[in-house]
Design brief:
Length: about 1300
Amino acid sequence: MGVRRPFRPGGMTMNDMEEYESMSLVQEEDSTREGVEQFLSEEAVTRAREGLIKSSKLGWEDGTLITAPPGVSFDVGLSYEDVFVVEDGEVVTRRGGDGGSESNGMVDDAEGGGGAVGGGPESLTLPGKAHFATSVPASTMFDKSYFDDDSLFGESSVGSSSDEDDDEGSLENSAGDESVARRQVVDVTNEKMASLSLNDSSTVDEVDLLLSEINDTLQSPIDQSRKSMESAAPVIHPPINVEKSNTDNNKSPSVRKSWAVTEYIPITTNSDFHTLLPNPALTFPFELDDFQKQAVLRLERSECVFLAAHTSAGKTVCAEYAIALAMKHCTRAIYTSPIKALSNQKYRDFRNKFGDDVGLITGDMQIGADGSCLVMTTEILRSMLYRGADLIRDIEWVIFDEVHYINDSERGVVWEEVIIMLPDYVNLIFLSATTPNTIEFSEWIGRTKRKPVHVIRTNYRPVPLSHNLWAGLKLHKLMEGREGFNPKGYAEAAKALLPLSVRAAQDDKAKGVKGKAAPPTIKPSSKPGSQQGSKQDWLSLARYLEREGLMPTIYCVQKCEEIANMLRSLDLNTAAERSLVQSFTIQTVARLSPVDSNLPQVIATCEMVKRGIGVHHGGLLPILKEMVEILFSRNLIKILFATETFAMGVNMPARSVVFNSIRKHDGVQFRELQPGEYTQMAGRAGRRGLDKVGTVIICCFGSVPPDQVVLRNMLTGSSTKLQSQFRLTYTMILNLLRVEDMSVEGMIKRSFSEFATQRALTTNDYPKLLTRGTKTLSKLDEEFKSDSDSRIGAEDIEEYYFACKDVLSWNNNLISYLLSSGGTGGAGGTGGGALVTGRILLVTSSRKQHGYVRAPAIVLRAPLASTSKSGATSPGTTVICMVLLPEGFTLSDDDSQSRDLKLGDLNYVGKSYDRNFVIHEIEVSHIFLVSSLKAKIDSKVFFQESSKKGPGLSLSSPFAGAKSIKSRQDDDPFAGMVARGKKAPVQSKPTGLSQEAQLVDEAMSHLIKTEAVEKNTGVELLDLRDCAKNMHQGNQEMEFRHSFDALERATALAREFQSHYHPNLEKHYTTVDRKETLRSRVMALRHLLSNESLQLFPDYLQRKSLLQKLGYIDENDTVCLKGRVACEVNTCESLIVTEMVFEGMLSELEPTEIVALLSALLFQEKSDEELDSELPQRLVSSCERMRGIAVYLGEKQKECGLPVDPLEYAATSLKMGLIHVVYEWACGVPFSSICELTDVQEGSIVRCITRLDELCREVRNCARVVGNPTLYRKMEAASEAIKRDIVFASSLYVA
């Protein structure tokens, strides 16, 4: 006997001829013999021997050795030693794995699997290489697992589909010569498969396999993707999640490219860096850190970079080098910042470094707009992109600073808009604090821009932080650097806050036990429970910081002015420093008018900074904010009381940072600081090159310290994830409808919020499955039509199928309601008696094992309620039944599993009265009819609960695998022995089998009788309305009765079809069921891949419907005049402004009244909404009309389906608190006088008026679009009326 060769064609010796000729004699078809003989030709055998004699590489090159099958890649092929091994002097086939395990399907070696193709005893498995099947009968010439696609199509789709065209092209090229080498064999196989009839078992298996694949991919792939991303622990430099092949030149086509690249350029010494960068665009006076070197090298290659590092780690180096590259290349670099204050600061820094080639563009000024580096806010860049400004063509780099600001609920959407709309030739740089999902965010950026993003992240902090609690007038260390949390320091702080008597008692106890002297105690000056701190507390802390050399210090507090006033007695500056401060304050105040220079806030701030104390909060005048920032950067302010805004937007480190509380108000409620918020503010501690450690102090002015668990989580917890805040606005929709390069659907699809969904669609190969499903469905439809002659008497099978689906749906709804309501109605798990043991049902499950249609069944076990992990109980969804199988059913020889079962086991197949039955677990959704008949049976004979659960143990049923008493008695070695002195019990004759057979016969007689009744007159339905008594609440009874009436009508309709009584109903029904199930899956896939599956698509349709109703766009989605006007407004609700313009409200008012009216659209703080009686009546009436417009727009949005309350929408959009203030300011009243009209802080007033100037320019543009010269001139006059004095004082950074 020769040894079989695993190669095809010709993979055998001449000695194999006799064996395979004998095998062919038992084949039923002559074609099979021909299929074998074509591989036993003399030429084929000769080629096989040559392939074994030659080396693998030579055989592969001259075509003797066949190349890899579809989806598998070789380096050079297989050698003789790979296939054969000498054992005991005999050459045998090499087996894979330790135990010669068999495997069906192909396992990619990149996944480390040792699989086999084809399986069976003749399978061959080679570790680390491709796997073949060695058996060669023609019927199994190619295992179907070779092909990813359904063989009905006659084509292969090897490899993973990708959403990028270049990947698809490379994938086709990688197939290359391999597909040519095997094309003839594949075509022959596909031709044979395509010629199979519809009812052929092979075709059925292919369709069922495709349905299984689609069902697997449709089971929450997005949730699985998100869970995998959330479960991934953040690392400093995470590796790329890409499987690599053995060689670089032969990569597996199934490897998918990752857009987030974490590979580092190898740099071992400083000379390596200078070798890679011989002519840098910018040199630095200090040695760069490793992450900075990596960023610079990536920028030199014109690659996108995401740099995530801690505060003050040196991320600005990356931005400065990009600016230098733009200047070197004579292009432009755009630096965007989240807030205007940071833009002004960066403009000053870059101008000092790069000279006059740096410009600043804000809402109210443009300086050096032709410079190579332009600093602006992200909103300004978005406006340029929508307008298509010429400036965009010259951009090489766009730098997004503080990109974690994308989490802002109001303005975070702007970042996503800009990233999506930027041209592909623009390189992007992202600077951010450390975030746990940097890879995910970079993956989204790369996928959106079609270019890799190099992620450079580091947890390295140049100056480590020391976290301490301030208690008992001393510091207690909680954590320092990368050390863990110190519970001992927390315990010492808690002890220091105890009253003196309690501490003395504890010390005496400790002294008596350990014999140690008690430490000196200091009584805290604050009252127990006081968290704000008294004047003495703050003075003591300030003196401690001064004494320990921990200044300058930033105090992160809420009531800045109040606490700063407690330290009036402190003077922290020397005489020389006071002189410098006084000189600078005089220069600053000189920019103001004499009246404004005497404002109380100006006088108080100037006096405070002279003593080395400053405040920084949103209510401070902008010019005073800049004065404090500059003085603090010059180390002329030793203590700075600031809010979170300072730490968020201004990069000015200090020696130490102090928190007076770890709680904050987020606009809705008070809560603890999140780890990311704490890190952002605490990161200001520690000046690089000046301090060895940055000190962070958490004040404990109360009687107890903050909770230890909260502190531990805040200090050691992960930072805030980057989350999408993308939402649709009317201005965005109108702008996108005007441009051609981007659609609204495209914007939604590319947003970060849809990234997980779109990636899941690509990962699960939905387009590929849709193509396969569509082709298979078309094939099934054609074959179903061609086989119409075989369905005599069942011509209406399709109509009957859909009628049955209705019956199944109504039954499922009604029974599910009965089961879910059974707990309150006392019905338990039987659905009010509907599914009680012995109830006779009609069930339909055509594609289940041993499928059946409207088959009679007896309930053996009612549905069991299940308990979730949270303790909630949910009704059961399955019922155990004895089902009558169709006539002519025979158990196949391959079904050995069913033959090994016995009565009482699930899936047992039995026989009685020449008919077969099966014990099945039936889904409630498969119940076709609940009859009024019941049979008296012993359900324990037919089904035992332990047979379903198997031998495995569980916490819910720890004795599930235990043997029954009977089986234990049978296993008892002393069974049958009688104790001495006892008489043997009288045993009855064994009648178990006859009784069991009698019970089976009785049950089968019920089922057969029911089948006959259904075919003749129809089984009587159980009135489910009687089962639902005492279960209803409210209108549920009427709805239940309506549903049951619909069930009765649907059942009567199904019985009218002649297919209902056809003897071969199961065969025809299964054919239609398989075809229509595939059709529903294809429709689901098509929906997932369409725009309708987008999360915001319904919101888009509703908003677009509103715009059509209001006349902003026409039925063709063309932007009309009102839409073009609305596109000009970006600072507030564009619809309200547009309606006011078209109603002529603004044209009727004076310029002073117009700006007062428009201020209601910009002011956001809570204040008195009552309009002052001193206002002109025309202005008051205009305010009411504007409120009416807002309510009208809210009603229209509600009519279109948007979740908007009209009154709430009007109250949110309009705030009347500053109308009187702005009106007086526009009339020329001094700033000091208008401040007396409101409780709003000076800084908030200035911020509102400066934004109002921008809105005036936008309304002026609206007048230009409409063609209203009167309104145009009035808006110019209104803008001039408010642009004066302290409100529009020039910035200290710019001048």
